Here is the input.
Amino acid sequence: MGDIILSTDKISKSYGGRTIIEDISISLRRRELVCLLGMSGAGKTTLFQVISGLTPPDSGRVKLNGEDITAQPGHVSYMLQKDLLLPWKKIIDNVALPLVIQGMKKSAAREKAWPLFAEFSLDGTQELYPSQLSGGMRQRAALLRTYLSSDGVALLDEPFSALDTITKSQVHDWYLEIMQKIDLATLFITHDIDEAILLSDRIYILAGSPGRITEEIVIGQKRPRGADFALSDEFLGYKRHIRKKLIDRDK
Here is the structure.
């Protein structure tokens, strides 16, 4: 599925003498959506902090397009569960903020961000404030901000968990479409097994203490996957297998 754009090689990280993750090697290809799935405390967020450069690993390397970016923030964008839009700023200025932080003038940042609102189904919201947007629109604005600060890769930590079921389904469909349009690869964290199976090209199971990659699962069904797929024997087979792997490892 194309060349590898992001990879980690034997990443380990400890805090306070306790090893959180150990020997983590994963990869992400262009336009691929890969899920990191595991129980709470397995070290998923710790791994994302290392990949994004926010914290250095004890050992191992992170590479982006073949270049070593270990402990170098600013190369890979990282979106947390909450949209974290600043309530006193208009949406256009919230979205353009990463560009301003990088040194671009506010007017130039606005000019670069403005036309992308249409691609993200947000045209007409530029001059509104976060409180005037629905939950789904706020999440799309946060994703646009993440895209503007990315280099073709986005790390999403539980990006859809705050949305209601109907809105989540709509945002899922929209995100898969926008990924293809803007040539974006995504590595995302979720606790939701159904979500992982419905969205992912591949799933990495992170389990144990310290957290290790215990399995890589390739989802054979082509994306996007319709509602009927979630009722199929194939889907239920993936789900049973993943639940067994997670529960057996963490008993």
In short: Residues 165-181 form the longest helix (17 residues). The chain has a mean pLDDT of 87.
